[in-house]
Amino acid sequence: MQQDIQEITRKVEEKSRYTKKLKDEIGKIVVGQNYLIERLLIGILANGHILVEGVPGLAKTTAVKTLAHAIDTIFQRIQFTPDLLPADLIGTQIYLPNTGDFTVKKGPLFGNIILADEINRAPAKVQSALLEAMQERQVTIGEHTFKLEEPFLVMATQNPIEQEGTYPLPEAQVDRFMLKLRVTYPNKQEEKEIMQRIANRTTIPINPVTTPAEIIESREVVDQIYIDDKLKDYIVDLVFATREPKAYGIDLEDMIAYGASPRASIYLNQAAKAYAFLQGRGYVTPQDIKSIGLDVLRHRVLLTYEAEAEELTSDDIVIKIFDNVEVP
Hints:
CATH topology of the largest domain: Rossmann fold
Shape: globular
Oligomer: single chain
Number of domains: 2
Number of strands: 11
Strand order of the largest sheet: 2-5-8-1-9
Distance between the termini: 19 Å
CATH superfamily of the largest domain: P-loop containing nucleotide triphosphate hydrolases
Helix content: 40-55%
Number of helices: 14
Largest sheet: 5 strands, parallel
CATH architecture of the largest domain: 3-Layer(aba) Sandwich
């Protein structure tokens, strides 16, 4: 077993070398936001989608666009608005009067890295048009079904402040995002650097440092990363503690309306492996699970009115669960 882990670690060290170059390349354009950049890499390595919550102006669009350029892949930005239609995302059939046939015009969803900007501004029918693409990695237009090219990552953003004219995301949609991130303001030093860069008005070229093929090869290595049975049990205990906190001696029963779904266990396992890959390790540690756990669980724990009355957030609940569930 020890020999197998050493072999996997050797593969990880070899295959993860480009990730530092990728971070450095993105750092040419994006100042700070290491948390966001690292989570974007985890999403693309673990084959999961990302929901980002943050006020305007925090370089969310810039970060994901730069990532796409550094991977040398197709980037599409879709601005969600109340008058958007599903066909505006997936495409439609166009009638050809010359032949009497229909031809398919593909929409912007046919890319590799998709930015769904302000996703909560579009009605439910448009949001649900993303479901098939996100889960099945395919799009159906009329009678035709098209496979989406890998890697395929949807990064959706929503503004936590301005709620007028927005449509809350359906639970089925939210659950399909592997990670939900909360992006905060830069510190003073970072903000000064941002101000100086913008004032200089210099265009910094982004050089591709990896390819989609290398990302797909890395995913195969991520899948091989060793995770001990005790850590698998730890992941399941964390998820079950969101459903039955009393069984784990945690006094949160009146605070949680619904616990995390089975997707939480799947995604926590995959994300922890991807996190270990970025650290250059061929095995998962309890700290890997703790480091990524909040991002996997925060949008899957629904609070009661009592919790909201006490001004508790899902982050508070998840942190308390991590503090109380025994670490192997």
